[in-house]
């Protein structure tokens, strides 16, 4: 079993070490990760400059690009064989609801899925990433169970870990994506020269969703596992839109 580990927090993030240690319990591990923070990069590709790769003393490969770049280079250029599994994370912060559309962590798993590699994205909902210590056995156990059951082609699993000590987790729930809305998330201010700038980020988050949603599972102290697929087609609307009789 050969496992590719990547993330969007950069190769120095404690989260990727936790993930790699968990994966080492299952098979051999290759870490290919960005050289710096790449949060909210989604599926961005680096097209307008060359990419460079280098290795650290412990064998980690560092890419000066996005999480998607990391997976593409790992699979097509850097590894001598295809990985059997790609794991991304453990992200510092949640990836629930619409956040999966922005997340570099989830995007890396999606890229692996697109080239036929089963993939899992892990995120820790707490803000203190040091609290992840001790989660390795649970992450490893989840990976073993996913592999035993099989991850269907063209799908991936999005896992969110609650901000609790591992021993306090109440169990695992299979969930759907909730909905979230940010408020006051844009800062508007003058720079030192008096020119106005805008900074996206921060603010408060409001979550909505039914009892099976991801944020409710986390709120109740459970691990959330959400199956995601790459086909965004709204199949229930196809016949309705066909009935519009659109024409040029």
Q: Please give the oligomerization state of what you see.
A: single chain
Named CATH topology: Stationary-phase Survival Protein Sure Homolog, Chain: A
Which spans have pLDDT < 50 for at least 5 consecutive residues?
none
- The computed structural class is alpha/beta
Please state the second-level CATH architecture. Answer: 3-Layer(aba) Sandwich
| Count of discrete domains | 1
| Percent in helix | 25-40%
Would you tell me the overall average pLDDT? 93
Which radius of gyration do the C-alpha atoms yield?
Answer: 19 Å
Largest sheet: 9 strands, mixed
Strand tally is 13
Name the CATH class. Alpha Beta
> Span between N and C termini?
52 Å
What would you call the shape? globular
Strand order of the largest sheet: 3-4-2-1-5-6-7-13-8
Task: Please tally the helical runs, counting DSSP H or I stretches of 4 or more residues.
Answer: 7
What fraction of residues sit in β-strands?
25-35%
| Full CATH superfamily name | Survival protein SurE-like phosphatase/nucleotidase
Instruction: Sketch the topology as an H/E string, one letter per element.
Output: EHEEEHEHHEHEEEEEEHEH
Task: Explain what you see.
This protein starts with a strand and ends in a 6-residue tail after the last helix. It has a single domain, classed as Survival protein SurE-like phosphatase/nucleotidase (Stationary-phase Survival Protein Sure Homolog, Chain: A). It contains seven helices and 13 strands. The protein has helices at residues 14-24, 67-78, 99-102, 104-114, 136-149, 214-219, 235-242, and strands at 2-6, 28-34, 53-55, 61-63, 85-92, 119-124, 155-161, 172-174, 179-183, 186-190, 196-200, 204-208, 223-229. Helix 1 (14-24) packs across helix 5 (136-149) and helix 2 (67-78) runs parallel beside helix 4. Strand 10 and strand 11 form a beta hairpin. It has a nine-stranded mixed beta sheet with strand order 3-4-2-1-5-6-7-13-8. 27% of the residues lie in helices and 28% in strands. The protein has 248 residues and is an alpha/beta fold.
